[in-house]
């Protein structure tokens, strides 16, 4: 079975400038692939990232996951040592932290490590949602806001690639666009 990134358009309910009510109407319409996405995975974000983009990821960390854990990058073009990464999220299991950061060209910024709790567990499915707002990314687990990350790289339309790697099986990857923009 071939794994595909699904691009969907949804009309969301917007409260002010906040997209807290944004949901894909029925995730059951989008296939849960029992054969995980082959990692590392590099895929195009159709139309680039913009305000209203939402990325849904369903996955399961490996049973014997190490500190390396896994990461998700929203970046400008293919993986390279000096490509700009607008948003980097790295779940590090041994440290029990979730790093958020950006890399502008070859230079990494200061890591943000403050999270209320470590939400991932080996062999336990997670549903993650990354929402792009005007001034920040919101990371939701299930339906709960878990962390926020202020945009350091402001040229969102230059972010055209999603890159996922590490010790995780990804079973669903959905990229949606908000038609209200």
UniProtKB/TrEMBL annotation:
Keywords: Lectin, Signal. InterPro entries: ConA-like_dom_sf (IPR013320), Galectin-like (IPR044156), Galectin_CRD (IPR001079). Residues 1-16 form the signal peptide. Residues 41-176 form the Galectin domain. It comes from Priapulus caudatus. PANTHER family: GALECTIN. Gene3D superfamilies: 2.60.120.200. The gene is LOC106807268. The keyword Signal applies. SMART domains: Gal-bind_lectin (SM00908), GLECT (SM00276). This is Galectin.
């Amino acid at each position: 079975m071939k794994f595909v990134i699904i691009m969907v358009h949804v009309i969301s309910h917007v409260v002010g400038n906040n997209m807290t009510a944004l949901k894909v109407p029925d995730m059951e319409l989008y296939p849960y692939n029992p054969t995980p996405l082959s990692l590392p995975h590099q895929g195009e974000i159709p139309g680039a990232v913009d305000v209203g983009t939402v990325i849904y990821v369903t996955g399961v960390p490996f049973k014997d996951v190490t500190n390396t854990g896994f990461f998700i990058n929203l970046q400008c073009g293919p993986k390279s040592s000096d490509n700009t990464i607008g948003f980097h999220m790295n779940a590090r299991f041994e440290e029990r932290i979730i790093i958020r950061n950006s890399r502008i060209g070859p230079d990494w910024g200061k890591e943000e490590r403050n999270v209320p709790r470590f939400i991932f567990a080996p062999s336990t499915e997670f549903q993650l949602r990354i929402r792009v707002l005007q001034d920040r990314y919101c990371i939701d687990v299930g339906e709960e806001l878990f962390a926020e990350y202020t945009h350091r790289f402001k040229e969102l339309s230059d972010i055209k690639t999603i890159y996922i790697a590490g010790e995780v099986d990804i079973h669903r990857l959905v990229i949606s666009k908000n038609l209200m923009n």
